[in-house]
Protein backbone atom coordinates (compact mmCIF):
# COMPACT_ATOMS: atom_id res chain seq x y z
CA UNK A 1 0.00 0.00 0.00
CA UNK A 2 1.25 3.44 -0.98
CA UNK A 3 0.08 6.96 -0.07
CA UNK A 4 -1.17 7.35 -3.63
CA UNK A 5 -3.47 4.32 -3.34
CA UNK A 6 -5.85 6.19 -1.02
CA UNK A 7 -9.04 7.98 -1.96
CA UNK A 8 -10.43 10.52 0.52
CA UNK A 9 -13.43 12.85 0.55
CA UNK A 10 -12.98 16.57 0.14
CA UNK A 11 -14.98 18.98 2.29
CA UNK A 12 -17.80 18.90 -0.27
CA UNK A 13 -18.01 15.09 -0.16
CA UNK A 14 -16.29 14.46 -3.50
CA UNK A 15 -13.80 11.61 -3.90
CA UNK A 16 -10.19 12.74 -4.25
CA UNK A 17 -7.54 10.24 -5.29
CA UNK A 18 -4.28 11.09 -3.58
CA UNK A 19 -2.49 9.96 -6.74
CA UNK A 20 -3.32 13.44 -8.07
CA UNK A 21 -0.54 14.70 -5.75
CA UNK A 22 2.21 12.47 -7.22
CA UNK A 23 5.43 14.40 -7.54
CA UNK A 24 4.49 16.92 -4.84
CA UNK A 25 5.74 17.36 -1.30
CA UNK A 26 2.76 16.95 1.05
CA UNK A 27 2.08 18.09 4.59
CA UNK A 28 -0.93 16.20 5.96
CA UNK A 29 -2.46 17.76 9.09
CA UNK A 30 -5.38 16.89 11.39
CA UNK A 31 -6.80 20.25 12.40
CA UNK A 32 -9.35 21.83 14.72
CA UNK A 33 -10.98 25.25 14.78
CA UNK A 34 -11.28 25.71 18.55
CA UNK A 35 -7.87 24.55 19.74
CA UNK A 36 -4.92 26.35 21.27
CA UNK A 37 -3.00 25.34 18.13
CA UNK A 38 -5.64 26.74 15.73
CA UNK A 39 -3.50 29.86 15.07
CA UNK A 40 -1.09 27.50 13.27
CA UNK A 41 -3.44 27.90 10.31
CA UNK A 42 -1.75 31.27 9.67
CA UNK A 43 1.71 29.69 9.56
CA UNK A 44 0.47 26.84 7.39
CA UNK A 45 -0.95 29.35 4.92
CA UNK A 46 2.39 31.21 4.88
CA UNK A 47 4.19 27.97 3.98
CA UNK A 48 1.57 27.24 1.33
CA UNK A 49 1.91 30.70 -0.20
CA UNK A 50 5.69 30.45 -0.25
CA UNK A 51 6.10 26.90 -1.59
CA UNK A 52 2.93 25.89 -3.44
CA UNK A 53 4.22 27.01 -6.84
CA UNK A 54 7.30 24.81 -6.26
CA UNK A 55 5.18 21.67 -5.75
CA UNK A 56 4.10 21.82 -2.11
CA UNK A 57 0.58 20.96 -0.92
CA UNK A 58 -1.06 20.98 2.50
CA UNK A 59 -3.89 18.51 3.04
CA UNK A 60 -6.15 19.67 5.89
CA UNK A 61 -8.23 17.03 7.67
CA UNK A 62 -10.44 18.51 10.42
CA UNK A 63 -10.94 16.16 13.35
CA UNK A 64 -13.28 16.51 16.33
CA UNK A 65 -11.83 13.64 18.39
CA UNK A 66 -9.82 15.77 20.79
CA UNK A 67 -12.01 17.58 23.34
CA UNK A 68 -14.57 18.32 20.58
CA UNK A 69 -12.40 21.15 19.29
CA UNK A 70 -13.59 20.92 15.66
CA UNK A 71 -17.32 21.43 16.09
CA UNK A 72 -19.57 22.29 13.20
CA UNK A 73 -20.15 21.00 9.72
CA UNK A 74 -17.52 20.73 7.00
CA UNK A 75 -18.99 23.90 5.46
CA UNK A 76 -18.80 25.81 8.77
CA UNK A 77 -15.20 24.70 9.31
CA UNK A 78 -14.25 25.84 5.81
CA UNK A 79 -15.90 29.22 6.28
CA UNK A 80 -14.12 29.68 9.62
CA UNK A 81 -10.70 28.89 8.13
CA UNK A 82 -11.21 31.03 5.05
CA UNK A 83 -12.61 33.99 6.96
CA UNK A 84 -10.20 33.95 9.93
CA UNK A 85 -6.98 32.62 8.37
CA UNK A 86 -7.52 33.13 4.62
CA UNK A 87 -6.59 29.49 3.97
CA UNK A 88 -6.49 28.37 0.36
CA UNK A 89 -4.99 24.87 0.69
CA UNK A 90 -7.20 21.79 0.16
CA UNK A 91 -9.54 20.91 3.02
CA UNK A 92 -11.15 17.52 3.39
CA UNK A 93 -14.14 16.04 5.15
CA UNK A 94 -13.99 15.90 8.93
CA UNK A 95 -12.56 12.54 9.98
CA UNK A 96 -11.48 10.46 12.94
CA UNK A 97 -7.76 9.76 13.23
CA UNK A 98 -7.77 7.19 16.06
CA UNK A 99 -9.90 4.19 16.97
CA UNK A 100 -11.96 1.75 14.97
CA UNK A 101 -13.48 4.51 12.79
CA UNK A 102 -10.12 6.09 11.94
CA UNK A 103 -9.74 7.21 8.35
CA UNK A 104 -7.73 4.50 6.50
CA UNK A 105 -5.24 7.15 5.34
CA UNK A 106 -4.49 7.96 8.98
CA UNK A 107 -4.05 4.29 9.85
CA UNK A 108 -1.44 4.19 7.10
CA UNK A 109 0.28 7.41 8.23
CA UNK A 110 0.48 6.23 11.84
CA UNK A 111 1.95 2.91 10.72
CA UNK A 112 4.64 4.66 8.68
CA UNK A 113 5.61 7.23 11.33
CA UNK A 114 4.96 6.41 14.95
CA UNK A 115 5.07 9.31 17.40
CA UNK A 116 7.14 8.77 20.55
CA UNK A 117 6.95 5.02 19.94
CA UNK A 118 3.15 5.06 19.83
CA UNK A 119 1.07 5.14 16.72
CA UNK A 120 -2.02 7.01 17.93
CA UNK A 121 -2.38 10.69 17.17
CA UNK A 122 -1.93 12.58 20.43
CA UNK A 123 -3.76 15.83 19.58
CA UNK A 124 -4.84 18.30 16.93
CA UNK A 125 -2.25 19.61 14.47
CA UNK A 126 -0.12 16.47 14.28
CA UNK A 127 1.63 16.76 10.93
CA UNK A 128 3.01 14.20 8.47
CA UNK A 129 5.47 15.16 5.76
CA UNK A 130 5.65 13.14 2.55
CA UNK A 131 8.28 13.42 -0.16
CA UNK A 132 7.62 13.65 -3.91
CA UNK A 133 7.48 9.85 -4.13
CA UNK A 134 4.81 9.54 -1.44
CA UNK A 135 7.14 8.30 1.29
CA UNK A 136 6.14 9.48 4.76
CA UNK A 137 9.45 10.92 5.91
CA UNK A 138 8.65 12.77 9.12
CA UNK A 139 6.00 13.21 11.77
CA UNK A 140 5.73 16.48 13.69
CA UNK A 141 4.07 16.87 17.08
CA UNK A 142 1.25 19.40 17.52
CA UNK A 143 3.64 21.85 19.21
CA UNK A 144 5.85 21.99 16.10
CA UNK A 145 5.13 25.29 14.42
CA UNK A 146 4.80 25.53 10.67
CA UNK A 147 7.91 27.74 10.59
CA UNK A 148 9.92 24.99 12.33
CA UNK A 149 9.16 22.64 9.41
CA UNK A 150 10.22 25.00 6.65
CA UNK A 151 13.77 23.65 6.24
CA UNK A 152 12.45 20.10 5.93
CA UNK A 153 9.95 21.19 3.26
CA UNK A 154 12.49 23.25 1.32
CA UNK A 155 14.95 20.34 1.33
CA UNK A 156 12.36 17.94 -0.10
CA UNK A 157 11.42 20.42 -2.83
CA UNK A 158 15.00 20.54 -4.18
Quick structural summary:
This protein has about 160 residues and is an alpha+beta fold. It has helices spanning about 40-50, 75-85, 105-110, 150-155; strands at about 5-10, 15, 25-30, 55-60, 125-130, 135-140.
What does this 3D model show about the protein?
This protein has a four-stranded mixed beta sheet with strand order 4-3-5-6. The protein has a two-stranded antiparallel sheet with strand order 1-2. 26% of the residues lie in helices and 18% in strands. It has a single domain (3-157), classed as Glutaredoxin, CATH 3.40.30.10. It is an alpha+beta fold and 158 residues long. The protein has helices at residues 40-51, 74-85, 104-112, 150-157; strands spanning 7-9, 15-17, 25-31, 56-62, 127-130, 136-140.
